[in-house]
Write a structure and sequence with these properties.
By secondary structure, the chain is an alpha/beta fold. It has a single domain, classed as Vaccinia Virus protein VP39 (Rossmann fold). Helices cover about 35% and strands about 25% of the residues. It contains 5 helices and 9 strands. The chain has helices spanning about 1-15, 40-50, 70-75, 90-100, 130-145, and strands spanning about 60, 80-85, 105-110, 125, 150-155, 160, 165-170, 175-180, 185. The strands form 2 sheets. It has a 7-stranded mixed beta sheet, with helices on one face. Strands 6-9 form a two-stranded antiparallel ribbon. Helix 2 crosses helix 3 (about 70-75). The longest helix is centred in the first third of the chain and has 15 residues, at about 1-15.
Length: about 190
């Protein structure tokens, strides 16, 4: 009797239709590549300066958080800026802030996975990710970035690449390291 009841319960979802079952994602879920830690404003300024960002260039900030890098790039440097943010709530909040500042013609935030985004239009890419995350992103950058593009990584190097230069910034009672790379990068 228990065996028949068990088999009946197994068949029940099929009788009720697929909509009663939880949806299984058909594509892999995007994964977080770093904790959410905002870059101090002084470091943002130095990252954009170190990148030699120019008016009209396009900056991509991978893991754009509250949009501070994007907003500074547009306001201070006259650049176009695209942020990639995995968190729907954070992406919506930063998009609202950008709209409130009337920067939505120059700045946008894409809710999504930075590993799968097209970076071919980037003149500058900014990162504040862990070294292991940079390792995952490196093949994407190597495949998509054009000659002359610059990458600035805050605190974490991109292993296998030789930085064009490094800079140190004192902010919030500690030293922040910037790794600046220019394409094509020199391999170590």
């Amino acid at each position: 009797m228990q065996y028949v009841l068990f088999l009946s319960l197994l068949a029940l979802p099929g009788l009720l239709g697929a909509q009663s079952l939880p949806k299984v994602p058909t594509k892999p879920q995007a994964m977080r590549l770093a904790p959410s830690v905002p870059t101090p404003p002084k470091v943002v300024d130095r990252m954009l300066s170190a990148a030699q960002l120019k008016a009209g260039e396009t900056l991509y900030d991978l893991g754009s958080g509250d949009g501070r890098v994007l907003i500074t790039a547009a306001q201070k440097y006259g650049a176009k800026a695209v942020g990639i943010e995995i968190s729907p709530a954070v992406a919506a909040e930063s998009s609202k802030r950008i709209k409130d500042l009337k920067l939505d013609g120059k700045v946008r935030v894409i809710e999504g996975d930075m590993i799968s985004v097209d970076l071919s239009q980037a003149d500058v890419v900014t990162l504040y990710l862990l070294t292991k995350s940079n390792d995952m992103l490196r093949p994407v950058l190597e495949k998509q970035l054009k000659p002359g593009a610059r990458v600035v990584s805050h605190d974490y190097e991109i292993r296998g690449w030789q930085p064009t230069r490094t800079e140190t910034v004192d902010a919030l009672k500690r030293q922040h390291q910037l790794y600046i790379y220019e394409f094509p990068v020199k391999k170590q």
